[in-house]
């Protein structure tokens, strides 16, 4: 347990920050899942719309440092390739 006032405050801040980061990471996963479901349905226009809507979420989470920018780029690239592969 934290003994100094500074350590107690840092512990409080860490809990608060963790809750916020977990929330953002969940939002990211939901956005990606939404695009994947649209891709699986086979409707290219719906998948493209879902992709465009969710990419702002991916970029936002990467900008805040919740995930690495390369991981965000990888998600975007793979989802984009999957959409292009829809016949």
TrEMBL record:
Gene Ontology biological process: translation
Superkingdom as given in the UniProt entry: Bacteria
One term of GO molecular function: small ribosomal subunit rRNA binding
One Pfam family this sequence matches: Ribosomal_S20p
GO-annotated cellular components: cytosol; small ribosomal subunit
Listed Basic residues bias regions: 7-19
Annotated region described as Disordered, given as residue ranges: 1-23
SUPFAM superfamilies in UniProt: Ribosomal protein S20
Region forming the signal peptide: none
Entries under InterPro entries matching the protein: Ribosomal_bS20, Ribosomal_bS20_sf
Keyword annotations from UniProtKB, A to Z: Ribonucleoprotein, Ribosomal protein, RNA-binding, rRNA-binding
Function, as annotated: Binds directly to 16S ribosomal RNA.
PANTHER family assigned to the protein according to its UniProt record, in alphabetical order: 30S RIBOSOMAL PROTEIN S20, SMALL RIBOSOMAL SUBUNIT PROTEIN BS20C
Family the UniProt entry places it in: Belongs to the bacterial ribosomal protein bS20 family.
UniProt protein name: Small ribosomal subunit protein bS20
Source organism: Nitrosomonas cryotolerans ATCC 49181
GN (gene name): rpsT
């Amino acid at each position: 347990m934290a003994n100094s006032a500074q350590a107690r405050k840092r512990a409080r801040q860490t809990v608060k920050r963790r809750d916020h980061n977990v929330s953002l990471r969940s939002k990211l996963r939901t956005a990606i899942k939404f695009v994947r479901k649209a891709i699986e349905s086979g409707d290219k226009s719906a998948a493209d719309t879902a992709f465009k809507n969710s990419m702002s979420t991916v970029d936002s989470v990467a900008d805040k440092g919740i995930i690495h920018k390369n991981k965000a780029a990888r998600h975007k690239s793979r989802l984009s390739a999957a959409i292009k592969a829809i016949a």
